[in-house]
Amino acid sequence: MTPGQWGACCTIATPGRRPNKGRVMAKLEVGDLAPEFELPDERGRAVRLSQELEKGPVLLVFYPGDFSPVCTRQLCSYRDSYDRFAELGVNLLGISDDTIAKHRRFKEERHFPFRLLADPRREVIECYAGIGLLSGGRAHRANFLVGKDGRLAYIHVEKVSLFHRGADELYGALRRALGSPS
């Protein structure tokens, strides 16, 4: 997939639908091209979605914030099941509006094997997951699986930030989305 074929973040062009421009969350659907983005990880290194997809499918995990009880439980459950996600060839990226420094502390303290991306201006968050009032104006808790072809293969957005997709349930959904045998 060439860069011109990507949906640009916050300018989602889907055949048969008008592009959504601006800072309003686009209504992304399974089969849409994933909006391209580049964000720094917990070490300040740039991570570009299209480059990550060269390695295989990417699971984008949007969450309200580092060190909060529900977010910590959620990401720790994904950490504990990381080998199962890796068996599917899925690369996991956590995304919140926290700072690089806070992500670095969170990752070090909780020993996450996946990178945490900082989106302090919430541009990618708004483009994909949207902002929730019940999460204090922070990211909706959401999972987006982007296939190697750059298309969204699975989407789950929680409207109530107290809930999250458990690792077992998420693994099953990803396995089905990727067409992997049980």
UniProtKB/TrEMBL annotation:
UniProt entry keywords in alphabetical sequence: Antioxidant, Disulfide bond, Oxidoreductase, Peroxidase, Redox-active center
Reactions catalysed: a hydroperoxide + [thioredoxin]-dithiol = an alcohol + [thioredoxin]-disulfide + H2O
Enzyme Commission number, as recorded: 1.11.1.24
GO MF terms held by the record: thioredoxin peroxidase activity
Domain Thioredoxin: 28-179
Tagged with keyword Disulfide bond: yes
Pfam families listed in its UniProt record: AhpC-TSA (PF00578)
Catalytic residue list: C71 (cysteine sulfenic acid (-soh) intermediate)
Record-level GO BP terms: cell redox homeostasis; cellular response to oxidative stress
Oligomer status and interactors: Monomer.
Family designation: Belongs to the peroxiredoxin family. BCP/PrxQ subfamily.
PANTHER family the record matches: AHPC_TSA FAMILY PROTEIN, THIOREDOXIN-DEPENDENT PEROXIDE REDUCTASE
Function: Thiol-specific peroxidase that catalyzes the reduction of hydrogen peroxide and organic hydroperoxides to water and alcohols, respectively. Plays a role in cell protection against oxidative stress by detoxifying peroxides and as sensor of hydrogen peroxide-mediated signaling events.
Protein name: thioredoxin-dependent peroxiredoxin
Originating species: Lujinxingia litoralis
